[in-house]
Amino acid sequence: MNYLYCAFIELLAKYNFPEGLALIIFPLLPFCIVAIGLLVMVLFLVLAERKILGFVTQRKGPNRVGYWGLLQTVADAFKLLCKENITPSGADKFLFTLAPVIAFIPVMLVWGILPYNAEFNLMSTPANLIFYIFLAFMPVLGIFLGGFASNSKYSIIGCVRAIAQAISYELPIAFSLLGVVVLSSSLNLSQITLSQYSVYGPAKWFIIPSFIGFVVVFISVIAELNRCPFDLPEAESELVAGYSTEYSGMRFALFYITEYSMMFANAAFIVVLFLGGYLSPFGGYLSNILWGDSITANILVYFEQTFWFLFKTFIILFLFILIRATYPRLQSHKLLKLSWTILLPLSIVNLFICMLIKFIGGAAG
Amino acid sequence: MKFLKQIKALLEGVFIVFKHLFKKSVTLQYPEERPVVPEKFRGGHTLNGCIGCGICRKVCPCDAITIENEGKNVTSYKINLRKCMFCGNCQYYCPVSAIKLGKKFELATAFEEELQVELVNDSNKSKEDNK
Amino acid sequence: MMKGWSGMSKMKLNLGPQHPSTHGVLRLILDVDGEKILGCEPVIGYLHRGMEKMAEGMTYLQYLPTVDRVDYVSGFFNSFAYVSAVEKLLKIEVPERASIIRVLLMELNRIASHLLWLGTYLLDLGAVSPFFYTFRERELILNYFEKISGQRLMYNYFVFGGVRQDIEYIEEIRPIITTVVEKLEDYEKLLTDNPIFISRTKNVGILERGEALAYSITGPNLRASNSHLDFRTQSGLYKNFEYKIAKAEDGDCYSRYKVRLEEIRESANIINQAVDLLLCKPGDVNIGLNPVNITPEAGEAYADVETPRGLTTCCVKSDGSANPYRVKWRTGSFYAVQILPKLLIGNMISDIMSIYGSLDVMLPEVDR
């Protein structure tokens, strides 16, 4: 099948495990890796955001728990676990409990769709791009239910805003993605990644032909993540905490994890679509250059691909955090206006540009 | 053109914030790093050479001071830190500069009794400090 | 009369008194339809400390340290209003050097207060960093105040007939002012042209000049509505100084922001002149009055001062005893709160903070 699989079987055989066990474990392993990776990533992201927000405002960020504050989020998560789960009186208890779960589950699935490297791609269905868009929209449903079930006026306003925002920012995303689909002639994220390959590194990344699409998706993704400057559903200076006003303890933590893991997933999504996913920015892979075509190199390539993938993702995440530190929040109606009057037309223009490029390229090729 | 200008302004904002990433932090890591308390700071009280005239009690806006004296011999001089607002009036209007508001600023406590500070005359330290 | 977009029934929304961005304890009872505000009723009094009644049980001197608390981010102004009212009762003149020191400290305090406003306003609008940047500069000024007076916010530095001591560390003022004015350019780059900031503030909460005057709005809020009214020009205190009156035409939140930023620059200008004057004019800083047992003659005195939030006046009535018979405060923020219903109705919920924040309401000053 591939080198990783062979290596795994060999490893198990060394310790006298039957081969059948390896057959069962091997497909399950990636899911465990994703689940653990998700939690670790969220812990890391929350810390990174607080640290960067601290640094850009000339503070130190959290630095008391653990070395350099590394365990701060762990301590926070532990605190949230220990807290009482309060359900406000008059709230719909069933929906109130269900909402964080509904928000959280799609995130796990979304993480499974992303191609981290050439092999580590759990749900590589032919049209998983559409699946991704569908799932990425789901957390908003959780937010809506949570706000709706809380029986609080701030929550209601927050969830209504969340829905309005999600609906109006889905369209620009979808249209910009169509551009990418046209360019790559595929709906599969791995295929999209591979079609951006060229020996000159970033020459064929889709950010070049559909730069407008990249900008539109970048803005819309921030809006869909409910992050500053589009954090209206939880605008703390207007709506206290928006949809999560009444949430506490573990339920709140689930919303929190959802927010940050969606942030990572969407940043990774942008990387896959526009920045060549796991492809190396130098054309060839460094491990191939260093170790030739040996088995070590072929295994190392997977790690290198993951490294490039994460590296690009972190650049996008860093931009997200910088933007959050800088801009004030938009007004809700101007937010919708921005989407319908600027981003949507731009994304349609982008689609036409992509089609033109594809047509000319096809005619030339 | 206006559109480009707006984008320029947005990017400029991000750049300014980004520049601060490399600046030194201005945080004071309080329990380890001590703040520099200026000379005139109005903190915990000290008493030295009180003659029991009672002017400090008279100018105190919040009746925080209780003095028991026999003539010029002060037997007890109490300050209720719960009431005291560290305005410094007692210090400013003391005719013999006996009471001083010092540099001690960590006066928070969990016990009410500790807020009733009895100052000892003719010494630079209150009983609180001697403990 | 006013119909919302959904045509549905109104919802009452209780904003405050413990709301993250009401800067203290203002309560707004809003009638909203969706996001649109149909009615607004400000409820004040959650921070009432009885500053006026309290004076009646205190001597003139005892009351002096407490007036810094009327508005705790611009304590020097309140001290000045009270002190000069009592000075008028006592019919004493302040030495010239003392009044220059007063101007210097008040203008520094104005800068500190405006910086606090800028930071918290941007925080209300959702921007995180400017808050820390402005507080960093404000810290320089507060540290200076701490050095000369002993505390950061509650100074107790002005006394009847002058200031407590001659000003010290005068050479440190210029670097502080230079830093603040330099950093202002950073804020301007961050905000003035930022389309998001403009869309949040421009043409939002427009206050016409006539309306502002009818509601007794004063200070930067009034000057943003195309008015020249600045009580500094009418007091003798500022007669030695040259400065422009910051002014803007539109009366919206953006103009108020512009006016305040401009005022910081003008204050820096005044401070530079004051430092020059202080360096070349030595002299007494107070008249050496022992205020412990002052008993002014029966009568009434009134003093006003242009604070960062408008006109603050203090009216002291004496019946010849050691305690004031009555002290009355008039503060700018109180009137700014009263105009909120006028400005908010018809706007969206997200505009509440941009309008309310731009008025620079300080709740302790409202309730006193």
Describe the protein's architecture and organization:
The complex is a heterotrimer of chains A (365), B (131) and C (368). Chain A is built from 13 helices and no strands. By secondary structure, chain A is an all-alpha fold. Chain A has one domain. In chain A, helix 2 packs parallel to helix 12. Chain A is globular and about 65 Å long. Chain B is of the alpha+beta class. The N and C termini of chain B lie far apart (72 Å). Chain C is α+β, with helices and mostly antiparallel strands. Chain C has one domain: Cytochrome-c3 Hydrogenase, chain B (Orthogonal Bundle), CATH 1.10.645.10. Chain C is built from 14 helices and eight strands. In chain C, strand 6 and strand 7 form a beta hairpin. In chain C, helix 4 packs antiparallel against helix 5 and helix 4 packs antiparallel against helix 10. Chain C is globular, with a radius of gyration of 21 Å. The chains are: A mainly alpha (365), B alpha+beta (131), C alpha+beta (368).
Largest sheet of chain A: none
Strand percentage of chain C, roughly?
Answer: 5-15%
Order of helices and strands of chain C: EEEHHHHHEEHHHHHEEEHHHH
Number of helices of chain A: 13
Low-confidence stretches of chain A: none
| Portion in beta strands of chain A | under 5%
Name the overall outline of chain A. Answer: globular
Q: Which secondary structure elements does this structure contain, and how are they paired or packed?
A:
The complex is a heterotrimer of chains A (365), B (131) and C (368).
Chain A: H1 3-14, H2 19-56, H3 72-82, H4 93-113, H5 128-149, H6 153-184, H7 189-194, H8 211-224, H9 236-239, H10 249-274, H11 286-291, H12 295-326, H13 332-364
Helix pairs in contact in A: 1-2, 2-10, 2-12, 3-10, 4-5, 4-10, 5-6, 6-8, 6-13, 8-10, 8-13, 10-12
Chain B: H1 2-19, E1 45-47, H2 55-59, E2 65-70, E3 73-80, H3 89-93, E4 99-101, E5 116-119, H4 127-130
Antiparallel strand pairs in B: 1-4, 2-3, 3-5
Chain C: E1 11-15, E2 27-33, E3 36-43, H1 51-55, H2 60-63, H3 75-90, H4 96-125, H5 129-149, E4 158-159, E5 162-163, H6 173-191, H7 195-201, H8 209-214, H9 220-223, H10 253-280, E6 299-307, E7 310-318, E8 324-330, H11 332-338, H12 340-344, H13 349-358, H14 363-367
Antiparallel strand pairs in C: 1-2, 2-3, 4-5, 6-7, 7-8
